[in-house]
Amino acid sequence: MSTIENQITLHIIKLLKEGKKDQFQTVIDEYQPYDIAKIYENLPEKHHTRFLIYLTADQIADLIQELEHDFQLEVLGKLGVEKSGEVMNLMDNDDLASLLENLSPSRIEELLSGMKIEESQIVKDIMNYPPETAGRLMTNRFVWIPQYYSVREAVDKLKSFAEYSETINYLYVIDDHKKLVGVVSYRDIILAEETEKIEDIMFSRVISVTADTDQEEVARFIERYDFIAIPVVENEILVGIITVDDIIDVVISEATEDIEKLSATGKAIDFDTKAIVAAYRRLPWLILLLFIGIVSGTIISQFEETLEKVVALAFFMPMIAGMTGNTGTQSLAVVVRGLITKEVNKKIITQLVIRELKVGIFIGVVCGILITIIALIWRGDAILGLVVGSSLVITLIIGTLAGTIIPLILYRFNIDPAVASGPLITTLNDILSLLIYFGLATMFLAQLT
Amino acid sequence: MSTIENQITLHIIKLLKEGKKDQFQTVIDEYQPYDIAKIYENLPEKHHTRFLIYLTADQIADLIQELEHDFQLEVLGKLGVEKSGEVMNLMDNDDLASLLENLSPSRIEELLSGMKIEESQIVKDIMNYPPETAGRLMTNRFVWIPQYYSVREAVDKLKSFAEYSETINYLYVIDDHKKLVGVVSYRDIILAEETEKIEDIMFSRVISVTADTDQEEVARFIERYDFIAIPVVENEILVGIITVDDIIDVVISEATEDIEKLSATGKAIDFDTKAIVAAYRRLPWLILLLFIGIVSGTIISQFEETLEKVVALAFFMPMIAGMTGNTGTQSLAVVVRGLITKEVNKKIITQLVIRELKVGIFIGVVCGILITIIALIWRGDAILGLVVGSSLVITLIIGTLAGTIIPLILYRFNIDPAVASGPLITTLNDILSLLIYFGLATMFLAQLT
C-alpha cells in the first residue's frame, strides 16, 4: 500500500467509525469501482460490514465485479440472501456466472433464489455454455429496439432503460421474429433527425457470433474489426452481447495460458496461490520429465562403453542437449504465436517448414563450425571436435524442425499447439540429440583417443 | 484462401475489368475495412491500381490501416504524393505514424509534404515520442467542447465534426486554458435535456495518462477501469486520446514479446520473416548459450576423475539438469505473468519468495525420493541413489528460487524480467545443478562402487 492509499483507508475508517454516511458517499463517489474494490480489500475486516451497509445496491454490484474472488464470496456472505439477490440482479450476468461457477450446487441454488426469476434464469443459461465460449462472456445489459421505431422512440426507450445502457454504445435492432437485423450507434442517434426511421439509419450488415463460438475466435473478430461490442445470436435471434473489456481479459488470459503451457507451469498459478496447491499443480509435469529423464539416462547407459573410453564426451553433453532444446523452443514460440494472429493453409505451412529447415541448416552450420574449433583448441583432438561439431549441425536442424512440425501437427488435429510445451520439446530434443551424439561418437570411436 | 474468398475475388476482378464502378462500390460497401484489405491482398497485383482508383480517399484511408506493411507501402507508392497526402489526412495519426516510422527520412518528408501542414505536424509530433509510450498510440480523431456549452451546442459541434467522432464515444470537455476538466459520453448527451449545461452533466474526475506513459501502463488502466478510450494530457492540456482497439494490439504484442523473451526467440520473427533474417535474429542467443554450454563442460571436466570412476553418474546428468531448468522456468513464468497484472510491494514479494521456497522444498522432496528409489532399483547402488536423490532435492530448491528471485531483482532495477529468459535461467540452473551433483558425488566417491 502506498502512503496515499493508507491515508484514504484511514479517512474511510474514521468516517465509518463516526457514522458519517453522507461524507462517506461523497468520498466514494470520487472513485472508480476498481479503486473502491482496492479500498475495501485494504480495509481491516471488522469495518467491512458497515462499509457495505453504507453503499447502495448499485454501488455494491459495481464493487463486487472488481474484487478478488475470496472477497466476492465474503461480500455475498455478509449481505444475506435477500440483499445479495438485489445486488446480483444488478450485476453483469457474465461476471456473476463466473463468480458462481466454482461454488457448490446447493450454494449456487441458495444465492440464485434471492434473485428475480428471469435474471437468475439468464445466469443459469450462461453457466450451461461450455467454458471459454461466447455464451459465457455475454451480458444482457444492452438495449434492443424494433426496426420500425423512429429515432425519437429509440431515444425514449433508451432513457427508460438508462441503467441497461451504461457500458454499451450501440442499440441493437430486431425484426418481428426477434431476429437481429441491424445496429445503431449512439453517435448515429445523435446525428440523426428525431423523425427518421431506425431501419433507414441502421447498419444492417451486422457481424455477430454464435453462443458456442470459442472465446479466442471472438477476440479475433473484435481485434480485427476494432469493435467495442459484438452481438451473440442463436438461430439468428439476439441472445446477448460481448463487450470489449471482457475481450481484453480473454486476450490476457489466453496469452497467460500459452505461457503456462510453453513453460509447463501447470494451470492457474498466481501470486495468491498457496504453496501446496502450486506445488501440486507443478508436480505432474516435473514427474513426467523425471521419467523422460530416465529414458535419456537409459540411452546414455547404452553407450557406457563409448563413454568409459572417452569421458570427454560427457563434457559436451549439456551443451548439445541444451542448444537443441533451445532451438526447438524458439521455433515453437514462433509457431504458437503465429497461429494466434494468422489463419493458416497448406501453402503457408509448407513455406514455414521450408523456412525453418533453412534456419536450422544456417544456425546448425554456424554453431557447428564454432564448436568444432573450440573443441579442437580445448581438447586438442580433431576427431572429437568433428564428432561434436557434426552432431551439433544435425541436432540443431532436427531440433528446429521438431519445434516447428510438432505444434503444426497438433494444430491440424485441433489440439492446442502450446501443449507441445517447451519442456516436452526440449526433452524430446534431448533424447534425439543424445542418440545422434553418442551414435556418431561410437562410429568414430576407433579414431577417438 | 477459402472458396468464398475466391469467389469474391473473381467477382471483383470481373467488375474491375468491365469498368463497373458503381457495382464495385455496392460490393465493397458490404464489407468491413479488414475484409476489404484481405480482398486487396488476394487480388493479383495488376488489378491493384484500378481497385484504388475506384475507392474514395476515405475508403482508402480505412483500407490502408488494415493492410500488411508491404501492401501499405505499395498503396502509397501507387497513389502518388498528392492523392496519398489526401488519404493520409484522413488516417488515424497513430496508425500513420507507425506506418511511416521505418521509412527513410527523405521518403517520410516526401510523403508528409502532400498532407495538410497541421496534420503532418501532428504525425511528426507523434513520431517524436519514444516507442511504446502513450504518445505513440494517441489519435487526434476526437471532439472537444468548452465546459460552458449547452447540450444543444455540444450536439451541433458533434454534427459538424461528424467524421472526427466515428470510433470514440465521448466528448472531452476543456476549460479556458485548454485544460481537460471533464468527459461526457454520447449516452449522457442522449439522456440529457438540450438546455442543460455540459459542466453540469460531465464526469469531472477524468482519469488520464501523460504522453510519456509506458504503453503497458496505459493498457493496465484501460483493463482495470474497463474504459474504451483514455485521454492523454501534457501539463494538464489535452493532446490526444488512446482507443481500446489500439490497447488490444498492445496487449497482444506485449504478450508476444514476453513469449519471445522467455523462449529467447529473438525479436519479431513471424511467419513472413525470411529464413536468413530469422536465423540472424536467433543466432546471438544460441551462440551465447553455446559458450555457457562450454562453461558447463569445463565444470564437468573438473570432475573428470569422479566421472571416470563412476561413469553411471553421466546417466543422471540430463535428468537433473533438465528438471532444475524446468522448475526454474515454471517459477519464472509465474513471476513474469504475475507482474503484468499485479502491483508489487515488499510484502507481496516476501510472501512470493517464501511461497516459492516452500514449493521448491515440496517438489524437491517428492522428486528426490522418487529418483532415489528408481536409481536404487535400476543400478542396485544405494549410495548412487542417495547422491542422485539428494542432489535433486537441493537443485530443485535452488532452481525454484533462482527462477523467482532473478526476475524480481531485474524488475526492481526496472529491467524487463522476461529478459531473464527461460534459456538463461535454464542454463544458469544447469551449471548450478552440475556443480551440486558432481560435488556431492565426489564427496561420496569413496562409497560409490
From TrEMBL, chains A, B:
Keyword Transmembrane helix: yes
Protein origin, superkingdom: Bacteria
Compartmental location: Cell membrane; Membrane
Domain CBS: 138-201, 202-257
Xref: SUPFAM superfamilies: CBS-domain pair, MgtE membrane domain-like, MgtE N-terminal domain-like
Membrane topology designation: Multi-pass membrane protein
Subunit structure: Homodimer.
Function, as annotated: Acts as a magnesium transporter.
PANTHER family documented for this protein: MAGNESIUM TRANSPORTER MGTE
Protein name, per record: Magnesium transporter MgtE
